[in-house]
Amino acid sequence: QHYKDDILPPWADHFGDKDTDTESCCSSDIGGFGVENDADSEDRDDISGHEEDSESSSDEDDGVPSEVFDNNLFRDEEQHDWEGSSNKRVEKRKARATITVFDTQSCTRLFRLRRPIKCRLFASPPVFHPTKSLVVWPLADGDVLFLDYLAKTYFTRRLQPSTPHTGHVCMKIHFSECGQFLHIATLEAQRKTPESKKDSETLPPIKPAVLVCTYRLSRGKTARSPPQQIHRMKLALGETTRLHVSKLPFTFTWTSKDLYFSCSGKSLQVYRIPLFSTTEEKAEDLQPVWTPKKPFFLPYSASNRAVHYFPPAVNKSGKEQLPARIIIGSGFTALKDIEPNEAEEEYGALLVKRVIEHSSRGGEFYPPAGCHVDEDTNLGGWVDSHARANILQDRGVGRLDPRIPVERFNPDDDCDLEPFIY
């Protein structure tokens, strides 16, 4: 997904439609998907207005109000009034999310869905179920799309955030190998103070966090029945003033029991988050979020590169076949960021020559690098990180609920005038 500007996604509402036709194609891909800016409505014949779960779809104007993206601020949850926007330019360039599923054997299009979106979600691709004709696609504002591309039906559910004044930055979907469980890891960003002035010189700090939820899928109606939440955990990531959403400094590695969440930095910062609860259904789960005990230093450039942590690979009998691995993705440093050594300071031409040899753009490329580590010897084992955050009880955090449309106040229909005689 590519956008012209990188911003944190504000709150917004979404509307959905359904596609019911197929057409021939020359593609050999399993599925095609993307987000496009649609300036007109010439493809409206591909869309119908029915949803399987009887959720209402809207044909109202879905233009993006200009104030949504001012100063990269979130819209408050309580502020539902979107009226008063007259930005013609934005209305003509409405962002639409499109997903298309193809059959690789018959080269036919099985399903196509196009939805207008009012805010943005980054690095959140759709995921196919391992055995069923189910695709789960995270949209924006917490909306998660469940579609059956063979039955040509779909429904949407809204993932409740963990705190007020919170926006979703990215959402990762993962199915268990058995296909009975769905895991969703959401990177959230909470504005620290609700009262943020648009004309302030400095942006208010944000508090990123990771909400990990596990859901049980229906065995008989996997693609039609909404999943049931059985586990949730939250990881607090401190506080920051900015977040580069086009190149997120976080990576996700899934296993059958845990999620390994890694952060870019000069030292290894990885968290092991359990995906299942160890207590009864209604009992409080007190599992910690784990982290390595010993520090493990990485190259200086790892602060601007993706850091992936892969745990030891084991066979079915539980015997370790491959040790843990740390993979650092490729990177690029501009010329002004390169610090010459003592020899190059005396002979500046050597530095310029070294940079030009690597890149004509005036910088230096770093190829991917990796190493094997022993979790006990090199990392000291896993200990409690004390970074698990509390989740408010009885607030529906992490639940996949139907989106309930908010009725706007109408002074003519919603007010009754009664004569008052003193």
Automatic annotation (TrEMBL):
Gene source species: Suillus luteus UH-Slu-Lm8-n1
Protein name: Uncharacterized protein
Location of the region described as Disordered in the Swiss-Prot/TrEMBL record: 1-68
Comp. bias regions, Acidic residues: 52-64
Domain of life per record: Eukaryota
